[in-house]
Structure formats: C-alpha cells, structure tokens
Amino acid sequence: KSYFRSFIGFLFIAVTLFFLGLYFSVYNLMNGYPYFAYVVSSVTFLFMLTVPILTMRILAEEKRSKTDQLILTAPVSVGGIVMGKFLALLTIFAIPVAIICFYPLIMAQYGSVPMGEAYLSILAYFLFGMTAIAIGLFLSSLTESQVIAAVLTFLVLFLGYMMDSICSIISSTGNLLTKLLRCFDLYTPFSNLLNGTLDVSSIVYYASVTALVLFLTVQSIQKRRYSMSVKNLSFSAYSTGMIAVAVALVVVVNIIMGEMPSSWTAIDMTSQKLYSLTDQTVDYVKNMQDDVTIYVLVNQDNQDTTLGQTLQRYDDLSDHITVEYVDPTVNPMFYTQYTTGNISTNSLIVVSDKRSKVIDYNDVYESSYDFDYSTYSYNTTTTGYDGEGQITSALDYVLNDDMPKVYMTTGHNELSLSNTFTSALNKENVDYETVNLMDLDAIPDDAACLFINGATSDFSSDDKDKVIDYLNNGGKVILVTGYTDEETPNIDAILSYMNLSIAKGLVVENDSNGYYRSPYYILPTQSSDSYTSGTYGKYLFLPYSQGIIVPEEVSTDETATGDITYDVFLSTSDSAFAKQDVNNTQDFSQGENDVNGPFALGVEAVKTLDDGDATLVVYGCEQLFTDDADSVVSGANLTLFTNTFSGMADHETYCGTACRLYDRWIRDLVPQTEEIIGKGVSYRYEKETKTDDRNAAGTGGAGGSIPGHPPV
Fold it and tell me: Is the full-model pTM beyond 0.85?
C-alpha cells in the first residue's frame, strides 16, 4: 500500500508498461511478428534500471530511520517480514505482467499466434523479474544508504545479465573459474525459455536462486538483530554454517537438474514442435544396433542452443549414440580426419564403423537470399531449421550397407541440377553420377533409376534402345521433357513404351485458379499421392509445361490399360489446351490446330513384366526442378523432387523439422480470411481444420510469389 501512496509504484508500472507497449507496437502490431518473445527479450535490460529504484528503500530506509527496530520487535518472524516485503514488491511487478497477458489475445484477433510460446515468454519474464527483485531486496538489507543499495543492485544485475559473455572472454574453452561464474548467469535460463521450450531446469534455477537470496536476506537481518544484543560470535558462526548448507543445496539441486535427460525436463511449446523429434526419427534411433559418435565442432559452452537441444534428444533416445564436443581452438585439425574441405564452427561429424558424414552448420539452417538493389548485395534471411532432417539422414548414411545410385544422362542438352537439388539427393543418401549413354554398353546394373532432365536434343537410336532395355529388365526412369521445335522420335519412343505421348506446344491454362500471373505459369491440380506428400493441398509451380497425353484421356487417379497402370498425380484443368505456334502467338486464345486438354503434367506408368515391373515417371515441365521455379513456392518443387527420387530409389525420406516453419523474421498478422499475393516468400498456416494461405516479404521467382508451403 505504501508504494501507491508514493509515486514509486506508479512510476515502476508506468515505465514497464511503456516500454513493453512500445516494443509490442513495433514488433507485433506494425511489423506483424506473431512472437511475443521478441517484446520481453527486448525489455530485459529494463530490470537493471527499474528494479534498483523499486527495491532500494525497502530495507535500507528502514535501517536508516531506525523503524526496523519496531518491525523486529513485533510478534512476527524475520522470515515473515522478508516474505512480506518480497511479496509486496512482487505484487507491484505482477500488475504489469498481468496486463501484458492480454497482448497475445489482442494479436490473435489479427492472425495466427503461437499462444504456448507467447505465454511461456511471459512466464520467463516474470521469473527473471522475480529473481531480480529478490536480489535487490537482499542488497537493500546490507546497507542504510538507498543510493548504495541501488548502485549495488544495478551492478549485480548487470553482471548477471552479461555473465555468459564475461565467461567467454575469460576463457573460450571454459575452466573452473568460468564454471563457478556461470552459476550466476541470469540470462541463459531466460533465453532457454524464450526459445519455446518449457525448460524445467531453468524454472528450478530461478526458483532456487530466489529462495537462496531470500534466505540470505533473513540471515543478514538476523545477524544484525542479534549482534546488537549478543556480544559473542556464536550465532554468527551458526548463520555462516546455515548459509554454506543453503548454497550447497542450491548447487546440488541445479546440478541434478542439469544431468537429467532433456526429455524429462524440457517440454516443446513451439507451434511447429521445433524441438521434438518426429515419430519416424524416434523409431529409427530406437532400433539402431550399431554405435555412432556425433562430434560437434564447438566448445560446449558456446554451442548453438537449438542444435544442442536437438542433439541432446538424440543422445537421450539411444545408448548407441554418443555426442562429443571438440573445441576447434584446442584441436583445430580434428575435422581433417573426415573431410578435406573447410567446415564451420558448430558443424557435426557423424561417425560409425562403416563410414562418416559431415554436416556443415550452414546446412542446418535454411536461408533465403534477397538482392538489395540499393546496396547491390544479398541479404540473408534464415527461413528454416533442418537439424533433425540432417542428423537422421546422416545416421542412415553411416549405418546403411546399400546406398541407392541414380544415373543422370548428359549429351542431349539436359539441364544440370543446382546445388539445392543435389544437396537434397545427398541428404536422402542417394548417390548420383552423370553419364553419357554413348560411353556405356548398357545402363549399369547398380542403377536405382535413370534420370533424364529436360533433354532438348533427341537420343540416338542406340541410346533409346539402352533405355528401353533397361525398362524391360525392370528398371526405373524419371523423364522430364524438354520443349523443342525439333522432332525427337527416339525420346517419343521411350514414352511410347508406356503408351504415352506429348502434345505439341506449350500448355495454356484457361482456368484462373490454375495459373499464376500468366496462363503459361501452371499451378497444377494435385492428387493425393506419395509423390505429392508434403505438397498436396498446396502449390507447385510448373512454368512453360508440355501436356502429357495418357491413354483413355486419364486425368486423375489411377487407371489400367492392358499391362500398364497409370497414376496421374499432376494435371491441368479441363479448359487447358496446348498452343502449337508458340513463337508467333499474339495472345492466349486457342488456335485452330491447338490440342484440347486436359493433360497430365506428372504421371507414373508401371508396366507389369514377367519378372518385376518397369516404372516410368514423366514430368512435362523442363523448369520444374530449378531454383527459380522452386523459389516461387518456397520449396514445394524441391519436396516433389525429393519424393520422386526417394520413391524410385525405394528410400525413405528424412524431412524432419525442415518441414516445420521456423521463420522468426518474416511473419504476418493480417486477418485470416484475407489472402495477400505479392512479391516474396510465401507460407501456409493451419488453424484447426482451416487452412490459411499467406505471403510475406522476401524474394520470388518468375516475377513474384504465390501462397505456398513452408521451406523444406
């Protein structure tokens, strides 16, 4: 009550709400970030200014004015006095905290908000403030000067806030001194909670430190109280012993919490379950029979927090996984045992008795690159976290006995794959090799499949025969057609093996829902299929496509013609047609010789043989597996690519958390019924059973972006 009879209580609440409201307006309302953690993280510095002012008088003024004698002689225990003071301070602090609990609800009126993360960040803010207030109360009990109490509180809170950086300066590798100093690292537990994990060890840390500081406050008052009436050191010695016991107890409790498995102490509160492992990974790791060591090239004290939590979960799942940290400053050449290239700090080296695999830290986080014309440079934005996908893939690679191999043809003006797509093959543990069929007598026996990517020059008759012989032996071929005005009878013959053909010209989509900006920029209709897993119900981008003609005008689902079964998983609308005279066209109207649709744009044909099956997957878009097309739909085409090769190679995909949105910078809070289409990277949010397509600022290909799905 006394705080509201003076201006201090009102001032504390007003200043706290002012800065919280300021950052809330900037981050959440103006820029549209749905994460309230940004706000509380930005105002943490405020504790160093407001808490000293709030707590400086609480006991120091009592001592200066001698009113503490009245309190100490009252029929109330010293512990009760301290708790009364502390709860009074905590109540003042709880008022603005209670008010900001409404802020996420305000945000929710304008878009999708991860409520679990929002209220977890508020809890972290309250715990940090609670500990800071307890420290201020204790320091106020040590002096009669309000100024000294305020200055001491500021210095102690500042050191606690900066302790992680101070320890890094003292020793990058860590030593006994830094271990002791990190006991007073107030910010790291706060940061752990802000990351979206309900970290029980962080909560225990704040609770135990608060309890210890309050106990020290009681001892400080008790010592002064008895020293005025008892002229000996007996109680002082007893008090020192109790302090030692209390400190030891707090240390032991926190050590025990630190040694407990993260699966017991950390609850994933992120909306994308960022720190949880998928059931696929859990089953795989639990069934491991061989030992694997994961070396992390960083001092453990300086590790990436998110990656460290992911690794801890792997370590907790299986006794066959061991995580070891190798400090590159101490052992700078360690990585040369496993790779000849340079790798980044925080990179991983996964090692088994069979082989090893390096996961560069740059591959753990997905990024987008936006060219800034004002500075003529690229701005890098983190768009995804792929820790689980990379680690599980690496485990499979180092433990697997048989690695599927893909042969990619060359010599017919085929398109080469970019690093994005070859990296996807590497992640799927699919080996690949580029071959010229003229140099081979036959397709190698170890070929999991043959990939023909957009050939615009015809195959020779011999090359065609090699492909057909390979199919007759139960082979698998992925054929991406390449548009050309020239005749390609031998490529047509490969298609004819499955009774497929290509409509001459390029597909024009007349249904406005089936294209993006230009009728040549096709957004195909998808059927639920293993090939469209992760993209079904979202968008794929197929610019300048050719129409695939399937027997009996099959456009969706599966059908059979004789011994061949067709599965059309990408198709146009019924109003589409193939424009033949592309070079001389003036508009998108249908000409007399143009072929009517609908067409297949992605089809699987399986022919039953006497011994096994022959499989041909055909895509009608030469640009389908390129970075430009993929960037328009934020990685959806890459997902289709991964699914295709994983299926053809009989290999399981390791999407992991890469398919979970982890963009902390590009978000929106527009009404959920509103769709924004513009230039940039696009995302999809799901709320209950409703799907909401969104678009946010970034980079786009082919003149812009469309609503799509999260980065792969």
Answer: no
